[in-house]
Description:
Distance between the termini of chain A: 63 Å
CATH class of the largest domain in chain A: Alpha Beta
Low-confidence stretches of chain A: none
Structural class of chain A: alpha/beta
Number of strands of chain A: 17
CATH superfamily of the largest domain in chain A: Type I PLP-dependent aspartate aminotransferase-like (Major domain)
Largest interface: A-B, 79 and 79 residues
Strand content of chain A: 5-15%
Mean pLDDT of chain A: 96
Order of helices and strands of chain A: HHEHHEHEHEEEEHEEEEEHHHEEHEEEH
CATH topology of the largest domain in chain A: Aspartate Aminotransferase, domain 2
Number of domains of chain A: 2
Helix content of chain A: 25-40%
Radius of gyration of chain A: 21 Å
Oligomer: homodimer
Amino acid sequence: MAKINRDYTKLRSSYLFSDIAKKVAAYQSSNPSADIIRLGIGDVTRPLTPSVIEAMHKAVDEMADEKTFRGYAPDLGYDFLRSAIASHDYRKRGCDIADDEIFVSDGAKSDSGNIQEIFGKDNVVAVCDPVYPVYVDTNVMAGRAGEFAEDAGRWSDVVYMPCLEENGFAPMIPSGDRVPDIIYLCFPNNPTGATIVKSELQKWVDYANEHGSVIIYDAAYEAYISEDDVPHSIYECDGARTCAIELRSFSKNAGFTGVRLGFTVIPKDLKVEGVRLYDLWARRHGTKYNGAPYIIQRAGEAVYSDKGQEEIKGLVKYYMDNAAYILNGLKKAGLCVSGGVNAPYIWVKTPEGLSSWEYFDRLLTVANVVGTPGSGFGPSGEGYLRLTAFGNSERTKEAVDRIAGIVI
Amino acid sequence: MAKINRDYTKLRSSYLFSDIAKKVAAYQSSNPSADIIRLGIGDVTRPLTPSVIEAMHKAVDEMADEKTFRGYAPDLGYDFLRSAIASHDYRKRGCDIADDEIFVSDGAKSDSGNIQEIFGKDNVVAVCDPVYPVYVDTNVMAGRAGEFAEDAGRWSDVVYMPCLEENGFAPMIPSGDRVPDIIYLCFPNNPTGATIVKSELQKWVDYANEHGSVIIYDAAYEAYISEDDVPHSIYECDGARTCAIELRSFSKNAGFTGVRLGFTVIPKDLKVEGVRLYDLWARRHGTKYNGAPYIIQRAGEAVYSDKGQEEIKGLVKYYMDNAAYILNGLKKAGLCVSGGVNAPYIWVKTPEGLSSWEYFDRLLTVANVVGTPGSGFGPSGEGYLRLTAFGNSERTKEAVDRIAGIVI
């Protein structure tokens, strides 16, 4: 008799974004004329840029000709892309990362979900609260989370690092009895939009090296960093090569949410129990993955051309202008807001002591604007709502004006 | 202190295709003028067909326009593709499969590697011998394989189903004490090229239903079936909806090895311990995967158009003409060969009692032809060599003539 993976059945059945979708659909159905503006899900809306489009057309044509046709890609990525990434995203910033320390994948979601697999079951995992749900759920599926306590809204074996107003919505280094073995950090943060300066990140790196912990550093939003002292990569810190894995994505800087491309960096110096994590991840790629599509890898390469870089600066500016409008508009309306300066997310404190879902409902029904309830990302997100800057510019302004209208 | 996944360290370090590549490179380096023909790796060589190319160009253009741009895809695949698959590959063949029982992915390799994850650790796994290495290695990584016995060349906890000459290189239903919980079957078989008729496959389905086993049925090569009584899908058998998962690929029928598209079918009737595997796999997709690229899913859809179907028939015919040439040419030369009728693989018995690697070396150095040693797929592959029909037609003929030349 076959047996299922019992850890899967522990997963919480409700899913934030499907719950939101159901509420929105129900409201729209009862109010067919309501003009709803969605600033909830972190999906981009601007089209791909000309360099990327041109590169993909060219690659498609190559696939039509037997002389230039490409079959199986190298498991870890084409050299042309790994080299462009290592050079532009790392060595140009003074980070010591070799081309072959880049593992190309179909996106940071897959990598952030799969990376835990190279670690044993008996690791203590630490996550921010609120947190991107994938980090937690994939550890639940692997049996690392323990049991869920309904009252606390937390898993028994996970170390939570609250991101609260008093710390600028960034986590504090754990000081309790349980030293985490694997620490998930996400800067610029999803969902709070918080960042930390390099000297602060250095403390995390030092902590990890001192305790033999591994930091899984999700830098999917690094393109949105606008301030000088905020690090773009954890490898800007001394010693990160021996304790940190970095995850990156093309989704938010180049609009690739529907194109699917990302990468993971694992320095060869990063050893756990004397074993290079580099080798374990390479083996996982080689065994369970067959590389990102050639056409998509050429699209990624085009992002690094001079023209491609100019174009994505334009994309990021478009969204960050939205972020600034949201941030300033809501501030002016008297709301407490943060994020939005180095991140495409704005973290709004609910007014009048409303719960996250109460404020969500109010915005939906009164302003016809959809946000994401902060409590959906963890108990410390209660009392907050996340808005994203990825919408159309005019619609975003309209949404802000509507929200401001109901607050004053 | 972080801990690694110790099961990863149990994996055999050598890897068949990299060993082959090293041997070929060494020979080429010592013999720079040698004109080597590669019939080893199962990668396709013909370009993508016009319908697919046209669909991809169109989809790329859609991504360039904000009105038609697509962000995140549905986790389980776009409806247009799931519907085309379910209709053409299943319902048209009389198989009762609904659109939403199709899970679109980036390929059968990923799916065949990841599928074991929804099962508990304490399942007994059965595989063919010889076997596609991914089935075994991913179970090793999950801790299900036990220990490797060097002398036997086998894992202690895995049930092996030898595919021997006396059974037409197809596995026999296990009759030993250990009843397998999860049974990996691959028809048409990689590497032997064997198939079984529908009445034989029905026995496997009956066995699985009787014992509560789950069959993971890899049908990646179904497009190569030329004989009427060979089933294209396990769902042609009665009762398969309650015991079988089927894996499919666009790699070999439409030449998508570098495009990356496949799918898994899980009927909603398939329950293990009362839980629908459908729900577990959907949860895995939703948590660890973000869907195949829009452009690639449109390419897949184009394969199902009338024109697309005609084109891929031409592709398959090209390769099957190669298979026929190899099969007949080597038979005429006095070699014992099988496969190649319903599969793109030809399974060659080594002459003169040579080992697989000895014959590999002989073909490489005397005929300058690269095959794949059968022993690389498992101990029962010893004494065999796999040739693939995926090469260029002229080169394949040349290779066959050379091999025939050294045998006679």
